[in-house]
Structures are given as structure tokens and as C-alpha cells.
UniProtKB/TrEMBL annotation, chain A:
This is Uncharacterized protein. The chain crosses the membrane at residues 14-33, 257-276. Keywords: Membrane, Transmembrane, Transmembrane helix. The keyword Transmembrane applies. It comes from candidate division WOR-3 bacterium 4484_18.
TrEMBL record, chain B:
The chain crosses the membrane at residues 6-24, 36-53, 68-85, 97-117, 137-157, 169-194. This is Uncharacterized protein. It comes from the Bacteria. The lineage of its organism: Bacteria, Bacteria division WOR-3. Keywords: Membrane, Transmembrane, Transmembrane helix. It comes from candidate division WOR-3 bacterium 4484_18.
Length: 280, 209
């Protein structure tokens, strides 16, 4: 009985400390647990890979804020590297206002790695409030919603934007989504109404909700949390598109070890409960 | 070890440690960081709303381009502030009714199509699903799961006879769903911790690459 009570009375600060060590130790000394690519990640990779070079652009919607950065920003970097390596044109916008800075930062990081030129290879539209109106409006006319890009340049004066009128001129959209508005709104307004092909990368919290949309084909692929980001980074590197540092892969050892610690504590807690149940 | 010399990185790192200190117990460092975050966020959102919403969508068209049509949304927007005037606070219903009517009209057909009709289609069994044994099997599992879970919430019939095992299967599917969601939530929270640790160990202390 004493063991059971001891297990139930473990100080929460002890748990925090052990969890902290489980996260920090693999960052300092990596274990190198291999990353297995899930079918949903492979589907998204294949969908982007099939976009012809220098043709219709890939639309990336930055639907997250700095709070979701550890999970979604590595996805954004990996997708940009994949697209630029394949000479796929990229159109970036933000449905979340704080996503504006993150989208711009990612483009400024990745575009120089592949010698991409602004206006010819990629365009940043920035943020526009009124998510439903923005998504529906872009289906009719992108210029109607974004007369200028983020820097105030008229879209007509940008080489890449000249043949682009609406969703019919977009190859597919990837929404990197941390909540609402996010992938579900893109499916509802751009996918269902205008037939735009949608893929998504989501925070792990909302991954379970997104799977039904992959099963129905409304999402052409799904990246789930840090694991999804690490899988995409692995695929991009495996195909020789990038040799850049992989922040999500670096975190996966910590993720696995922390999960192991959590599982051990859950088992210990249950053992403690069953050992003391009779007393109660 | 390559410690950052950037004062902003140091400031961010110290704020992170201040927030983490709450794991031990509540303290003035945590409260300072928390209040600073709330204040900064509010200021950031006010500036952001002005520059991205009010200025381009109302101020410039109305004041600089003299498009008088924009007086209508201006008046509707100002009605929100009449909530503070007890005699006139019913005016706030007008912009709410306008927003609600517009949003419902736009959202209902789209959500019906995307989240109900398409999801129902995904539940239905078609011969194509049985081209491979595994997809066929999962399709049957999905169909059983959906029917049993819906019947679990069917409160008009007492859970006796055939309804009892169906409801039990339904709750089993629900529990598996909750378990998956919880597992993903743990993964998400650990990911956030990893992100901060990467910042502290890489960007601040320069211990890791």
C-alpha cells in the first residue's frame, strides 16, 4: 500500500523536472531515432511534387501565430524549400494577422538559398481581415481582394501575377493552420465552392479532427504537428531538394523521449490507483 | 558554447525563464512576464487592427478617396459603441443582425457541403473501396463507428435490447477518439516545450547547433 500511496503523491515539480531533462538531453546529445513517413505526409509531398515547374503557383496560407511556431514554422520552411527547389512559383498570404511577419521571415530565409527573385518566382500578399470574404473574393478575383502585394506594389506590375486571376490559376493551396480560420475554412469556401485542391499542416492538437477530411479526399495531404514537419523535412532532404538544418527533426528525439516519460508516469499513476483502491 | 550577444535574445530568454518559473510556484517574475505579455499583445492588436483593417478598408476610401458609400459601414460600426448608452443600446442589434445574416448565408451552404454532405459520402460503402482488402476493412469500421456513435446520442430510445450493445460500441469508438485527441494534445504541448528549449539552447546559449 505504501508503494501505491508514494506513486500517487509524486510531486508535480518532480514530473516537470524529469520531463524537462527528457526534452533537453536529446537536444544536447541526439539519439537519432529514425523518422518514418506517414502516408498522409507522403500524399502532400506528392501533390506538391506534381505541380509543373514555372506554371501555376502554389498558394501557401500562413494561418498561425508565434504560439504555434515550433510545429508549423518548420513545415513552412520545408514546403518553401521543396517548391523553390522544384522551380514551383509560390504565392504566400496570411489569414491570421500575426502570420504576416512569419510568412515574410520564411520567404526572406528560403528564397536567397535558391536564388529566387521576388515578383517572378514568388509573391507575398500579406494579411487581409475578413477571412470568409477574403477566401470567397479570391475565388472571383485575387486583384479584387489584394489590389497590391504586402509592399504596396500593384499585382499587375509583378511578372508572376500577370496570368493569375483567381483560384483557377492556382495549382493548389496549403493551409498551415493553428485553428480558426484555417484548413476547414479553406475546404469550405475555396475547396467545396471553387474546387481548389487543398492540403494542410496542422498543430498536433487539431490533427485528429483533420483526418476525416483526408479520408474523404477533401484534403490531398496532411502534416500533423512536429512529427509531420519532421517527416516533410526528411522527404525534402531524401529527394535532394535541401541540405538545410532540420529543426523539426532535431526535436523528434526529445518528442519521443518525452512521450516515453509521459507513458511511464501514466502507468505508474494507474498502478498507484489500483494498489490503493481497496483502502478507499 | 556560443552565447548570444543580442540583447533582444537575452530579453526573450529571461522572459521565457520567468514564465517557466511558474512551474515551481507563483512568483513576481512570472507575474511581470504575464502582465507584460497581456499589455504588449493589446498594443500590438490595436496597431495591427488600425493598419490592416480600419485604415485600408475605411479611412483611405472614405477620407482620402471620398467614397461616401463607406459612411454606411462607418455608422454600422459606430452603433457598437452605443452599447455604453443605456437608452440607445438597442442600436447595437443592427450591426449584429447584419453580420449574423451575412455570415449565416455564406457559411451554412459551405459548411453543409464540406462538413456534412462530403463526410456522409465518405462514410458510404462503394465497390471501389473494396479494390484493396485494407481500405475495404477500414471503410466498414468507419461505417460501424459512425452508426454506433450516432445511436449512442439517440436518447429517445431506452438502452435495452439491441440498443445496449450498439451504444457500448459507440462509446468505445468515442473513447478511442478521445484517446487519440489526448495523445495529439500531449504531442502538441511537448512540441511547444521543445521549441522553447531549442530557442534557449541554440539561439541564447549556443549549446546546440
Amino acid at each position: 500500500m505504501r508503494i501505491g500511496e508514494t506513486l500517487l503523491r509524486i510531486d508535480r515539480r518532480v514530473i516537470y523536472l524529469i520531463l524537462g531533462i527528457a526534452v533537453i538531453a536529446p537536444l544536447i546529445k541526439p539519439i537519432g531515432i529514425p523518422v518514418n513517413v506517414m502516408p498522409e505526409t507522403q500524399k502532400l509531398f506528392d501533390a506538391i511534387n506534381q505541380i509543373p515547374s514555372n506554371d501555376k503557383p502554389l498558394l501557401i496560407s500562413v494561418d498561425f501565430d508565434p504560439a504555434a511556431m515550433p510545429e508549423l514554422y518548420p513545415m513552412l520552411l520545408a514546403i518553401l524549400r521543396h517548391a523553390f527547389a522544384k522551380n514551383i512559383r509560390v504565392l504566400v498570404l496570411a489569414i491570421w494577422a500575426p502570420g504576416t511577419g512569419l510568412g515574410e521571415m520564411a520567404l526572406q530565409t528560403v528564397a536567397p538559398e535558391y536564388n529566387k527573385t521576388y515578383g517572378r518566382d514568388y509573391v507575398f500578399l500579406g494579411y487581409k481581415p475578413g477571412m470568409t470574404a477574403v477566401m470567397l473574393g479570391m475565388g472571383e478575383s485575387i486583384r479584387g481582394v489584394f489590389p497590391t502585394d504586402y509592399y504596396g506594389t500593384p499585382l499587375d506590375s509583378l511578372e508572376m501575377m500577370q496570368p493569375i486571376r483567381n483560384y483557377r490559376d492556382i495549382a493548389m493551396c496549403v493551409s498551415l493552420s493553428a485553428g480558426t480560420p484555417g484548413y476547414l475554412e479553406w475546404i469550405s469556401y475555396a475547396g467545396a465552392r471553387y474546387g481548389l485542391k487543398i492540403g494542410t499542416g496542422v498543430t498536433a492538437v487539431s490533427a485528429a479532427d483533420a483526418y476525416p477530411y483526408v479520408q474523404t479526399g477533401q484534403l490531398c495531404g496532411l502534416l500533423a504537428g512536429l512529427k509531420g514537419a519532421s517527416e516533410y523535412e526528411t522527404l525534402v532532404e531524401r529527394h535532394g531538394y535541401s541540405k538545410a538544418f532540420k529543426p523539426a527533426c532535431q526535436g523528434m528525439d526529445s518528442q519521443s523521449l518525452a512521450h516515453l516519460v509521459m507513458m511511464i508516469f501514466i502507468v505508474l499513476g494507474n498502478i498507484g490507483y489500483f494498489l490503493t483502491r481497496r483502502q478507499r | 558554447m556560443n552565447v548570444s550577444l543580442n540583447p533582444l535574445v537575452w530579453f526573450a530568454a529571461l522572459l521565457t525563464l520567468s514564465i517557466f518559473s511558474f512551474l515551481y510556484r507563483d512568483n513576481p517574475f512570472y507575474r511581470f512576464a504575464e502582465h507584460l505579455f497581456v499589455g504588449t499583445s493589446m498594443g500590438y492588436w490595436i496597431a495591427l487592427t488600425w493598419h490592416n483593417a480600419v485604415k485600408p478598408n475605411l479611412w483611405i476610401p472614405l477620407v482620402k478617396e471620398h467614397n461616401l458609400l463607406y459612411i454606411i459601414p462607418l455608422i454600422l460600426g459606430l452603433f457598437y459603441f452605443l452599447r455604453f448608452v443605456p437608452r440607445l443600446n438597442w442600436f447595437v442589434r443592427l450591426p449584429i443582425a447584419f453580420s449574423l445574416g451575412w455570415a449565416s448565408g455564406v457559411a451554412i451552404p459551405a459548411v453543409l457541403q464540406a462538413s456534412i454532405i462530403k463526410q456522409l459520402q465518405g462514410t458510404m460503402l462503394t465497390p471501389a473501396m473494396f479494390n484493396r482488402w485494407d481500405t475495404g476493412l477500414w471503410s466498414i469500421v468507419i461505417l460501424i463507428g459512425v452508426i454506433c456513435t450516432i445511436l449512442f446520442f439517440f436518447f429517445s430510445a431506452e438502452r435495452r435490447g439491441i440498443m445496449k450493445p450498439i451504444a457500448q460500441i459507440g462509446i468505445t469508438f468515442l473513447m478511442i477518439g478521445f484517446g487519440a485527441s489526448f495523445g495529439y494534445t500531449v504531442m502538441a504541448r511537448i512540441s511547444l516545450l521543445i521549441g522553447r528549449m531549442q530557442f534557449l539552447l541554440r539561439d541564447w546559449l549556443g549549446i546546440v547547433q
